[in-house]
Give the backbone structure.
Amino acid sequence: MEPSDEALCQRVAERDEAAFDLLVARYQERAYRIAWSVLRDGEEARDVSQEAFIRLYQAAGGFGGRARFSTWFYRILVNLCLDHRRKHAWWKRVLGGGRPDEPDGREAVIERQPAEPVDPLAGLGREQVMTQLWAAVATLSPQQRAVVTLHVQDELPTREIAGVLSCSEATVRVHLHRALISLRATLGKA
Amino acid sequence: MALTHPETELIPYAKGELAAAEHERVAGHLATCAACRESLAAFGGILESLARTAPEPPAVPWGRYRTELREKLEARRHRAWTAWWRRPVPLALSASLAAALVFIAVRGGQQPATVDVASVEQAVLGARLDLLRQYGIVENLDLLENLDVIHNLDGLETSRKG
Ligand SMILES: [Zn+2]
């Protein structure tokens, strides 16, 4: 049987390098994707997700097993992302840049359209609408975007998202609700 | 009944996350409130569409990713090690050194000094080795800083709410 994430983390605390490699292999794609969802920059997402693994390695002894490993690890990751954004926001504003990967993201959205759309957006110029919708996701507050991302891409339950963001479930619900209000307004204008 | 719309509970309701009583309350409200039914349908549609069309981040060569990660981890360990080595001599070590020097001073006149120098070296090395055996602690110097960060996560969240 495969060892659980929690058991592997325990072994990392005992400096078991193989256990660390296994955890990295298990979480690398999810970690990178979550980081990218918040940062919208491939290089930064790579860097910050690697940093999260380093913190995991260093702090594994502090994982008490009270939460799920994924919640604990995502918390480290998401907070590094939010911190990174906060620290780097000023120069992005100065340089007038924003989200280097956004054009790629938009193309990817269009490429990934299912052949037979069966949703309420069908017939509204769906590709265009989805492009606008994702562009609107990119303008949400980092917390709102993190909630939306963890919700739709990782299908985490509200309780776990609250654990990741170190806030109450009520706060997560408010973030999600506000995000949905904004996104709905975007669709209204589309 | 429709006065307070359970707006923030709509999605948790649809996901089946609410406690039984709350679930019943929202279900009852939805039965009588067209606005909330409309919101729920719209929000559900948006989330479903997002889930289906999530943009993919740029591809990553995972072998290279892990090699980079290893290199960074090694560099961090090396830094922690160097930082420790350059720290002032720990108190316990200074104490044993001082004791050894007193020992030399007291016995200096009676015995050839070389023997005592050897015992000083032994005392010093012994102390160092003892500390070396606790390398786990040394290695985790960074950890203290990180635990601090982790403990402060709640603070980070509240300070950023918006
Ligand atoms: Zn209502």
